[in-house]
Design a protein that fits this description.
The complex is a heterodimer of chains A (397) and B (195).
Chain A (H helix, E strand, L loop, with lengths): L3 E4 L6 E4 L13 E5 L1 E5 L2 E5 L8 E5 L15 E8 L6 E8 L8 E8 L2 E8 L2 E8 L7 E10 L13 E8 L8 E6 L5 E6 L13 E12 L1 E2 L2 E2 L6 E3 L2 E2 L3 E7 L21 E9 L2 E13 L2 E11 L11 E6 L14 E3 L12 E9 L22 E9 L1
Antiparallel strand pairs in A: 1-2, 2-16, 3-6, 4-5, 5-16, 6-15, 7-12, 7-16, 8-9, 8-15, 9-10, 10-11, 12-13, 13-14, 17-18, 19-20, 21-22, 21-28, 22-23, 23-24, 24-25, 27-28
Chain B lengths: L16 E3 L4 E3 L1 H9 L1 H8 L11 H4 L6 H8 L8 H15 L1 H9 L11 H24 L36 E2 L6 E2 L1 E4 L2
Antiparallel strand pairs in B: 1-2, 3-4
The chains are: A mainly beta (397), B mainly alpha (195).
Chain lengths: 397, 195
Amino acid sequence: MPGGWWCCCQGCWSWSDLFNRGNSTDPGDDWDEVDGDWGIYNFALVETYGGGGEPLAKIVNTDEGSNAVPSRSANSFRESVTITDPTIGDKYYLYIALENRDSIEPKVCFEYTNVNEWLVTVMGDGQEASKTMNCVPNEEGEFIVEACIEPYAWFEEDGTNPARVCMLRGSVLTSTNEWPWLDDITVPSGKMYGLGHDNAETGTGTGSGIVGAEFDDFEVHELIARTVVCDTCFCRCDWRMPLKKKLTLTIVAEEYLGTGTGTPNRVACFDGYTCDLDAEWNVSGFIWRGDLTYVYDPMHNHTFYWRLSCGQYDEEKPFDHLSLMMETPQQCCSSMGGGTCPVMTPDDEASTCVPLSLVFGPYTTTKTNLSCWLCYAPLQPMVDVAVGEFYVVITQS
Amino acid sequence: MSSLPSRKTECSCKGPGYCSRHHIRKTEAWFHLCCQDPEYFQAWEIGRGPGQLLPRGDARAAKPKGPGTILRRMLGSCGQYQFVPEMDRLGTDGCRSDLGRLVGVVLQDKDKFAMRLNEDVVRRMILLAINESEELQVEAAEHGGDIGAGASAGGTGAGKRKETCRVCKVPGLHGGPALQVSGSGMSSNFQGPVM
């Protein structure tokens, strides 16, 4: 295995090729030249302008031996590579979860559109999504790009592998822009990976003068080894359930409080209100945002702003990495009629990851909180009610 | 959305609104999930779907811990494993009738536990968990449901009692400190107010 290493740390498989070997017209036994003429030059993987095919040059792993993704991780791995000294207009590709050497999707295209600016496009199952990502290269003029694919659910209830509905993303590392993301693509259970480009031979400047692309430091990691989380690409509820881009938030406010002995719930009319939560990713992590407005009358309404944040999943602390923040000017969530709404984590006994049902609450407000107009006329005494409480349930949409 | 072209589950709802089968009010989004997503439909069928479980002692009091939850505790862990929801969903009778397959499901996670597990040990532990779950169900029936369900007595809206995780020694299975938040006598997993 020239230049490569593999690791089986804690049962997690990964493999890399740093290309630190002598100049050669052969990229090594781990690689299969599908299109173009690949080789090693100056301790990097380079390709002369090949011509033909789509894209114009492509190399994939040989899918045998230590460089082969374990079958258990088909459609569930992350890969990254360094691109050296790109020229504006260059296009580079990361192929991921290919069914065979001739497959051309799923893939992520990294187009260098301007100085320190990339147009990243993820493509799979006839769908694609793009985002512009800005990034400053390191001192050696290098950019690290990555692609990641993950099944939406790891196991069905009967323990079998799921229908391979996948989530796919691409990103330029260290960029703080949102990455492009597809979360509902169906692809074959492929486990091959590869690199490609569509550049003219003068595109890069390695000194050889003949290369269209120069790659270095390729790595591939599986995400889950059986039930062990090895690597993370998306926010996950638990080890088998990454969260999709769009979620649904629903208010649950029962008619009566507590044991249902007849004490009316001050905010019972809020029951059934719902809104979408849309994901965005930035350098600080995943956040889903949404808002809903309760209208008492044309002059009085409340808008509730929701933000679901996702931290690092810890299997020993289920749900603790998820937190919900609610903001509303009238403080309908406060038992004291003022202050800021509390940040909540899901109730660990009422919440489930499969299917996704995150339960937050109760949010409470007092009878005397007259600035909260939920269900009652503003500043009107409420003689028949006590406190109000409602819960928030987040499901997939 | 209420006139869906086809249903992938046995959802019998005619549309959004109160569901007499699952005893909750379903929004349009939940009605859609009920009709189109077998996992959600099954969760509602066993009383663990969205809106059916609320973090209140009285709401969960009638639901003693299932055999999967008990087995997880017996194994000294508080992590999330495939067998936990599956055994809880099957219940005691279902676990008994599907014992052979469940042994295999539990053994998939055997490397994650401190104790050495083999087929015979797992089989016996599952049977112990089933027995304990059945005992809790009997006690719950005798004591008005206030057994093993994370609920404690304390008047209307009894507060939530959280057990201590054996591994992490943290009350509440990592749910965070309980903080009294209202005059209703209920508590929840507040991380505290923030500005």
